[in-house]
Design goal:
Layout: H1 3-12, H2 17-29, H3 45-56, E1 59-64, H4 75-85, H5 91-104, E2 117-123, H6 124-128, H7 134-147, E3 153-158, E4 173-177, E5 190-195, E6 198-202, H8 205-221, H9 225-240
Parallel strand pairs: 1-2, 2-3
Antiparallel strand pairs: 1-4, 4-5, 5-6
Length: about 240
């Protein structure tokens, strides 16, 4: 809808000045295109929604039990994931998907608006699962160590010794928290998980509360950032003599 049409409707329904301004702002934002839209079909349609939500979030929390999260993957790691997930893609198509995923990581370094805070709890199993090239997997471990030096990033290791956490059988997920919007209530937290055929978005209070409890259970068992850095470095020395 056009912002002028929204303004006229707000006047008709006697909306407050603050609400009118907020709704007109939303109308303008719906016309803005995200960077990812220039890549066309290199992104699945169901993932486009997530990338947009991710760009709007103030905090991102990932619990990962199977794979390094996309925002912290090296180029070599991402390239192998793409090749395994879609072996029928041409080399050119694989490179386009790689470019999208690398562009997405710029989220963590943007200047305006401020980048979101990223906290990742990652299972030790993920870091012990190698790439085809040992040197490239060693590079991925170094990248995770370096990520912990960023002021807005916390990488936390969930070691085998921690045992099971609540609903450990449920797999990985992300929780997105959103900022306040000009006096309006913020968007509700959203839980996201995906698979080969699509994605699941949950924002009902009882659903989010359940995933918050899973996150809390894993968080209580995970190492803190400093401990995780030391543990990942030790793991790299054990597996790759680095």
């Amino acid at each position: 809808m056009r912002a002028l049409d929204v303004k006229a409707m707000c006047e008709l329904y006697d909306a407050s000045a603050d609400l009118t301004e907020a709704l007109m702002g939303l109308a303008r934002e719906t016309k803005a295109k995200g960077w990812w839209q220039s890549y066309g079909d290199a992104l699945p349609s169901w993932f486009e929604l997530y990338v947009g939500l991710e760009a709007a979030a103030r905090r991102l929390r990932y619990l990962q039990t199977d794979i390094v999260p996309g925002l912290l993957q090296t180029k070599a790691y991402t390239r192998e994931v793409i090749a395994l997930d879609d072996p029928e893609l041409s080399g050119e198509e694989q490179e386009r998907r790689l470019a999208v995923r690398m562009e997405r990581q710029n989220l963590l370094d943007r200047r305006l608006p401020p980048p979101p805070a990223l906290e990742v709890i990652i299972s030790e199993a993920v870091l012990r699962r190698p790439l085809r090239s040992p040197s490239e997997m060693a590079g991925q471990l170094r990248y995770l160590i370096e990520a912990n030096d960023r002021p807005n990033v916390a990488v936390r290791l969930l070691p085998f010794s921690a045992g099971l956490h609540r609903w450990a059988s449920g797999g990985g997920f992300a929780i997105l928290d959103f900022p306040d919007q000009r006096g309006r209530d913020p968007e509700p937290p959203t839980v996201y998980s995906d698979g080969p055929t699509g994605a699941l978005y949950l924002d009902k209070t009882r659903e989010v509360d359940m995933y918050e409890s899973i996150w809390q259970s894993a968080s209580e068992r995970a190492l803190d950032s400093a401990q995780s850095t030391r543990a990942i470095r030790a793991l790299s020395e054990e597996l790759y003599n680095e």
